[in-house]
Design brief:
By secondary structure, the chain is of the alpha/beta class. It has helices spanning about 10-20, 55-70, 90-95, 150, 180-190, 200-210, 245-250, 260, 270-280, 295-315, 325-335; strands at about 5, 25-30, 40-45, 75-80, 105-110, 115-120, 120-125, 130, 160, 170-175, 195-200, 230-235, 255, 285, 320-325, 340-350, 350-355, 365. It contains 11 helices and 18 strands.
Length: about 375
Amino acid sequence: MLTLVIADDLTGAAEIAGVAHRLGCRVRLTTALEQLTPQDEVVVIATDTRSMTREEALQATQEVIAQIARLGLRPDRLFKKTDSVLRGHVRCELEALQALSYQRALLLPANPSKGRLIRRRIYSIGGTPLTRTLFRHDPEFPATTSDVVRLVGGHAPYISTRTRRKTLAEGVTLGEVGSMEDLRYYVARFDSPEVVLAGSSDLFQCLVEHHGRQPVERPAFAGFGTRRSLIVLGSTARHNLLEEPFFQRNRVAIAPMPDEVFAGGATEGWVREAQRLLTEHDSLLLRIPQQISHDEGRALRLRHQMAETVLALLADGEFEEVIIEGGATAFTILKGLRWGELTIADEIAPGVVRLHHAQSDTHLTFKPGSYPWGACFR
């Protein structure tokens, strides 16, 4: 059975690929769908639509739809990975999929395993309404409401496991989720080749398990050790990562973005300073220490400045590991490398996935900004 996944950012795509890998599926991650074969089990298409304007996101989704149509192989299941807190252009991308003859979509963005729940239309994280979390400060999609129907826009039908609905109306339907068991209920009732299931990695896990897959035992990731590493903090998340023993043990140099670059200046000076640090240290961390306010234009510029700096460092020398936090930053770097297809090496933690490209010895690890690192640096 072929399951095709369209993800709206790279770290979300990697997260889904990690789940499929954990459950023993043959999986590949691509940014440009060139082929589908009967041997494929899970193919994940990474787009960057979450960081685009609505018009750009719609056009990019239509291009993916055209790629699928040209290949002429209809997947057995189509899954749409969305942001778990509904950032991006979720509704318009789901509605665009009607061009592939999918008239119904069930949107379940909650991630119960991470305390992200939807009850009575209100989205909460660890019991706190969305508008009182750090997502209210997101530079591109600040959470201005905790009401999921308003977050999605329009007047989407809203159902719960208590509704016992047997069919879905045309268009996008939202579902209440208070537990993993709720997700399993929805999958059992609405999994169909005619319905697009859309939402979180927890939902995708329930879908794959519904089709008989169970976790496969694999060797635990042993950590990055003393490998030459480039660590890129491209998201707005704030954490105490630098307190991890890995950074003291490996004497990781830190190259914060200079104020002049943050203000819009050229990156050449930052690159030179990073290169100088790498003559004295094996590993390097790039970060943006400045506070980023809600400004879509600035967020886009900072992403490209970070990617430009990373690509310059990769062109100057080899790293065994490149570890990137933030999906939009990761996608821009991947495009610059012209690495269209990746395979899974390790799922370090839920959402933290290590991948490799067939023509390079460098491994890439991606992590969503709001997820914990797990045992990545321990």
